[in-house]
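Cross-posting from the chemistry board since nobody answered there.

I work mostly on the small-molecule side, so proteins are not my area. We synthesized zinc ion and want a rough idea of how it might sit in this target. Sequence and SMILES are below. Is it possible to get a predicted 3D structure of the two together?
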Amino acid sequence: MLETPAFWKTDLDTIEQLALTAKAAEVRKIGISAGGRPMWCFSYGEKQPITHQANYSSACGGHDKSCYVPLEGKKPVVLLLGAVHGGETEGTAAAINLISLLETGKDLIGNEYPSLIEAARKVRLVIVPVCNPDGRARVQPAAMIGCTGDELRYWMQGTWTDGSLCGWPDCKKTHPIKEKVDFLGGYFNDDGINLMHDNFFHPMAAETQALIDLCDEESADWILHLHGGSNSTNVLLQTRYVTLECQEAIHNLAMRCDETARATTDDLRFNIQDIPGKECGKTPPSFNLTSALHHVCGGVSAVFESNQCIIDQSGTHYNHEQVYRSHRILFEQCFLTACGE
Ligand SMILES: [Zn+2]
């Protein structure tokens, strides 16, 4: 593992301290995990009172989305969701630095980013730095950047009862996984549930229910799920089982982030995924948390996969500063996109 720089804060104690001391944010616990840990939520910007005449599904069924949210004059709402997988701390580190920026005018390095602050103030910004506090508590390293592939597998997916590494995607073939493992990886809450693949029609985990409720209460326009993606270059994944408009919005944000990266840096890039075709096949793509949250509120819901710099595997290797800088590009371009700029 590379040495973790001082600005890279991702532990639950730091978040609790921030929650107790934040002044600009409205801070609340949106849920309690299976292991009894709070899910802290930081909101910036006024909450527009919206009365839902119908839920999102019924409004669409009635051929009139305005029965769920007003079509004109709605303040854009952006949700940033960190660490749905507890070992993927890249987005959490970036979110905590963004909170510091909004609270003090400086991030944890002491840098100021006026254009990012200005963009953030144009939206209602709702940040959950860690959505899976049980998984986060179980993963000891503050960052996986510079780890080996085996270290990543251990902390993310855990070990089977025979001691062998669970790995991806085999860790998804048993769900909940708790009874089958020796070490429960950071993917899971204390009940062995991977929030990404909960039963969304009857949520098994309180954390999943809290995120569904949050999207509905906030009538979210954008929901960015901040994940780690091994040695991939920064990428906004295409969400499945959502509208073409949602997929086009994800594509356009990815293009915008890459253009910004090319214009302002020599070293960062964003991969741009094509818009996928209709879901099909014997084993179709999963309807996951990202898909589900779109269907709660109609917002654009997308996974951002950050680089995790696995040193003994090929691919892109970004350091902590590059990973953090990538997130700042993503955040600023998302805020501007959300408010139509
Ligand atoms: Zn993940």
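Reply from a structural biologist on the board:
Welcome over. Reading the output above for you: Residues 85, 88, 227-228 surround zinc ion (CB under 6 Å). The CA atoms of residues 45 and 124 lie 5 Å apart. Happy to explain the token format if needed.
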